[in-house]
Amino acid sequence: MTQVRSAQQLLAVAYDEALCGLAEGGIPIGAALFDADGTLLGRGHNRRVQSDDPSIHAETDAFRAAGRRRDYGRTIMVTTLSPCWYCSGLVRQFGIGSVIIGESRTFSGGHEWLAEYGVSVTVLQDQRCIELMTEFIAEHPTLWHEDIGVADGIEAP
User: Fold this and answer.
1) From 24, 59, 103, 155, the catalytic residue
2) Do residues 15 and 128 make contact, with C-beta atoms less than 8 angstroms apart?
């Protein structure tokens, strides 16, 4: 039986992961990798703070949880926030075919770049995701700037 899910249903999995990250004292960004039919392959959340590892972004956590595949072209990366350049690079490197983004208002990463290279990109501007990040950024600006590579409000070259 083929499992078909809406973009909002897929986003719900990533959003739950973002809430897990927040509950653990981390940055509330969640992601999930699905097959084209909506089968969940892997899910994860930003664990930079919890694991003291700057490479564990939500998308990389979900990607690692999905395990090895020969082809990622028919997979869908769902993330609560526009992917940073690091995570956008992961999508390009492995040829992930589609990305669904919860919101890009609080941070606009590399999703336009991905679209230029043929990745199907859907930005939902989901109000729950916007509110979650807006509140987090207001409460933890230093941690947020560290996460996006900004020191003292100045972007790195």
Assistant:
1) 59
2) yes
Q: What digits encode the pLDDT tens for the residues 48-95?
A: 999 999 999 999 999 999 999 999 999 999 999 999 999 999 999 999
Q: What is the pLDDT at residue 73?
A: 96
Task: Indicate if the pLDDT at residue 156 is higher than 50.
Answer: no
User: Is 59 annotated as catalytic?
Assistant: yes
Distances (CA, A) of 107 to 14, 21, 81, 103, 137: 17, 18, 7, 8, 10
Q: Shortest CA distance to 74 belongs to which of 123, 17, 12, 2?
A: 2
DSSP state of 39: -
Q: CB within 8 A of 62, min separation 6: which ones?
A: 14, 17, 31, 32, 33, 42, 43, 44, 77
- Helix/strand/coil for 26: coil
Contacts of 114 (CB under 8 A, 6+ apart): 83, 88, 91, 92, 99, 121
For the chain, the first-to-last Cα distance in angstroms comes to 50
